[in-house]
Specification:
This protein has about 725 residues and is an alpha/beta fold. Helices cover about 35% and strands about 25% of the residues. It has 23 helices and 32 strands. Strands 11-12-10-13-14-9-15 form a seven-stranded parallel beta sheet, sandwiched between helices. A six-stranded parallel beta sheet has the order 16-28-27-17-26-25, sandwiched between helices. Helix 5 crosses helix 6, helix 8 packs parallel to helix 9 and helix 19 runs parallel beside helix 20. The chain binds adenosine-5'-diphosphate (ADP) and zinc ion (2 copies).
Length: about 725
């Protein structure tokens, strides 16, 4: 027997199949997806690889496989999926296979240790500080840097995993501990991935007519084993989740399984609770980033051995080792977190479609504010559109009031307007709760007028300029146009500076003004597992009156006592240097507006802004998605953005400032010569230009139909694959540019 093997390597030239002989003695554990070790070329150490096919013979003279580590491989479906992904996302098949393996597999010798339950844990003391010090290049040791970056991405991690994943030593961690960047704590690991206990059981509700219609359409397809793409467009609280629950119940009845994707599970614990309350913990597996590798391993097994028939999780849960899929549901389909921002840059929605086609089952996307791309697809009848226009319960949509901060500033109110102060006081007196949102994404490199909200934009791209300190100029990251920033606001004459108001400052202000119990939720207060949950639980039990937070609180929270939501400043979202800034703002505000008054008492939303006439804000106030859609589509059409044009982003990075730019120019010229039907923008500097002493440049390709695109891009990637000075990557349909 002969195995076709893919080596576990990111090197482009190794992205192909190699034949190896399967020795008799190992034949019993060789399956597709098995992890193997082989002798490759004249390398001394054994190389790791994966079996992707088994056949009877080969035309070559073969070496033996040296070792098969786990018999527990991936299915043929996954192997095919990995191959498709590799082509689509310009990466190696092995990089895609890794996404599909049981947690921990690709790290050396992990199998036994993952099962232990007493571990040393490492966590970052202060994420903001670490991020800051990384940006300022304070870490000279590459190992320490790897550790910190890993912890920033993955949160608290047990020490042994950390060392394996980052290929570092205990000493490196110890010296970070000495410098008080991290702490090491020994903990008895309790393997319970569920964020808290749900005792009560719920049973299904009687559908409204609209719900029934949507349910019937989808369940009909399920019962007939038919593939189909559905978009449920329903305002917040219109009963989408109830439909998901009953669709999953239908899958169970047919003895089928379900995958339910949510934007970020640790941010939407209440959604998970509703699934547990309906189906019980024993039937559900959850997969999310706050789980330890050991916990993820347990959940993976629970799915693999068929015990859990329902998988709930964030993006990567789409790769769950589930069989007999009956439905895939993608909640809040407009959320950017379904797209992976690093290599392989897959979108979980695309993977969901591939898997649904394979399993012949429906894929359901739901949102109160569908992405423009999805709604346009529904318009073209690619997706079947199902509409929920009303809330089933007696609750009405909240009242939204917009406050013009230009007027407030004149009165000396820089943070809170008179109206918002007044409302907070009123709610406190009535023993009701408030949520105050401060959407700060850290675009400190945006120059804006604090008096009137004016922000300079590139007229060609309708995108905010980014300020570059070193060269003191404003630059458009789409087309490269640059200009000297004005000192004073051209609109109102006052001094221009960058925006910046943090949650801490806001908390201080609120504490000064009110006698209230205030809790803050942001990356500082929720870096540890369980902290987030505790804040939510405590707030739910009315241990606090006011919850302050970044956009993480906008998602999925449902508290009956919350009757006021205040948005302190919309500008950081509205002025983000991104062609989707208006769309993202509309989505954020709509979502926030949906949080207030979920129960019978009517909710109120107050939005403070320097741009009260902006259509995103006005239309979010009126809960008018359809009008927003039309308005935004006409702008996209005019400026040739998605969904009218597709985008591809070519990123070029190098340690060499000038060399990088020279190569980027070469690539730009080559693209222009080959892609006659496309618009090529750039090269220009990326919005995060210099990170860790690496310079980033980018080229944007706008196209509708371009037959040469894939081959041209592949040619470029091949050209640079052996060049260790220049790194070239391609991202199709990028979320951030
Ligand atoms: P969405 O997911 O669209 O935000 P939910 O499914 O969370 O909406 O529903 C909002 C509220 O309405 C929930 O409290 C839910 O229990 C309730 N609800 C949903 N469907 C019905 C129904 N058919 N009858 C009565 N109440 C319902
Ligand atoms: Zn101004
Ligand atoms: Zn521009």
């Amino acid at each position: 027997m002969v195995a076709e093997i893919i080596l576990n390597s990111n090197a482009k030239e190794l992205n192909r199949v190699f034949d190896y002989n399967i020795p008799e003695t190992m034949a019993y554990k060789a399956t597709i997806g098995s992890r193997v070790f082989v002798q490759f070329g004249n390398r001394k150490e054994l190389e790791e690889g994966f079996i992707i096919n088994i056949k009877d013979e080969s035309e070559f003279k073969l070496k033996d496989i040296q070792k098969i580590v786990n018999e527990n491989g991936i299915s043929e479906e996954k192997v095919e999926l990995a191959k498709l992904m590799a082509r689509r996302y310009f990466c190696n098949v092995s990089e895609c296979i890794k996404l599909m393996l049981p947690p921990g597999t690709t790290t050396k010798i992990i199998e036994n240790r993952v099962k232990e339950k007493n571990e040393n844990f490492v966590s970052i003391v202060n994420e903001i500080l670490v991020q800051n010090d990384i940006e300022e290049n304070k870490f000279k040791s590459a190992k320490q840097l790897r550790i910190l970056k890993f912890l920033l991405d993955n949160g608290e991690t047990n020490l042994a995993d950390l060392l394996l994943f980052t290929d570092t030593t205990r000493d490196a961690v110890k010296s970070l501990e000495k410098k008080k960047y991290v702490v090491i704590e020994q903990k008895q690991v309790e393997r319970n991935p569920f964020l808290h206990k749900v005792e009560k059981k719920t049973s299904k509700l009687k559908f409204t007519d609209e719900q029934q219609y949507a349910y019937d359409k989808i369940s009909f397809a399920m019962d007939k084993n038919k593939y189909g793409e559905y978009l449920i467009y329903g305002v917040t609280g219109s009963g989408k989740t109830e439909i998901y629950l009953q669709l999953i119940e239908n899958a169970l009845r047919n003895n089928k399984t379900s995958i339910m994707l949510v934007p970020e599970i640790s941010l939407t614990p209440q959604t998970v609770d509703r699934f547990i309350a309906r189906f019980g913990e024993e039937n559900i597996a959850v997969l999310h980033s706050k789980l330890s590798i050991g916990e993820r391993f347990d959940q993976w097994n629970k799915i693999k051995n068929g015990q859990a028939k329902i998988v709930i999780g964030a993006r990567s849960a789409i790769f769950a080792p589930i069989k007999d899929l009956g439905i895939i549901i993608i909640d809040e389909e407009h959320t950017s977190s379904y797209k992976q921002e690093n290599h392989p840059r897959y979108n979980a929605k695309d993977i969901a479609i591939l898997r649904s086609k394979y399993h012949k089952c429906p894929v359901v996307m739901g949102s109160a504010t569908p992405s423009l791309e999805s709604f346009a697809r529904a318009g073209n009848k690619v997706y079947k559109l199902l509409v929920l226009s009303k809330r089933p319960s007696s609750s009405t949509m909240p009242n939204v009031e917009i406050i013009d901060m230009k007027e407030e500033v004149k009165k000396g109110n820089f943070i809170l307007s008179d109206t918002l102060k007044c409302k907070i006081k009123e709610k406190l007196d009535r023993k009701e709760q408030s949520i105050i949102l401060l959407n700060r994404r850290g675009y400190s490199s945006i120059i804006s007028c604090r008096e009137c909200g004016y922000t300079e934009k590139c007229p060609k791209c309708d995108v905010t300029y980014t300020y570059h300190k070193t060269s003191n100029n404003l630059k458009c990251h789409y087309c490269g146009t640059a200009k000297v920033p004005s000192k004073v606001c051209p609109k109102c004459g006052s001094k221009l500076r960058d925006f910046g108001l943090g949650t801490e400052k806001l908390e201080e202000e609120l504490n000064k003004l009110f006698k209230a119990r205030i809790v803050r939720m942001d990356v500082d207060t929720t870096s540890k597992k369980g902290e987030h949950q505790k804040i939510i639980d405590d707030f739910g039990e009315h241990k606090y009156d006011i919850l302050i937070g970044t956009q993480m609180i906008a998602k999925g929270l449902d508290f009956p006592l919350v009757t006021l939501v205040g948005v302190v400043s919309v500008e950081s979202s509205l002025m983000a240097p991104d062609f989707r800034a208006s769309e993202n703002t509309f989505q954020l505000l709509s979502q926030v507006a949906g949080r207030a008054g979920r129960s019978t008492s009517k909710g109120e939303v107050i939005i403070q802004t320097y741009n009260p006439d902006h259509y995103s804000i006005m239309l979010a106030k009126n809960h008018d998605y359809l009008k927003f859609y039309k308005e935004e589509m006409s702008i996209r059409k005019m400026l040739k953005y998605p969904p009218y044009y597709y985008l591809a982003l070519v990123s070029i990075s190098s340690r060499d400032y000038e060399g990088g730019f020279k190569e980027a120019n070469k690539i730009g010229n080559y693209l222009r010569s080959k892609l006659g039907n496309s618009i090529i923008l750039g090269p220009t500097t990326s919005s995060a230009f210099k990170i860790n002493n690496i310079y980033h440049y980018q080229i944007i390709i706008k196209y509708q139909k371009e037959d040469n695109l894939i081959s041209t891009l592949n040619f470029i990637i091949d050209m640079y694959k052996n060049n260790n000075k220049i790194d070239v990557e391609v991202d199709f349909n990028p979320i951030r540019i």
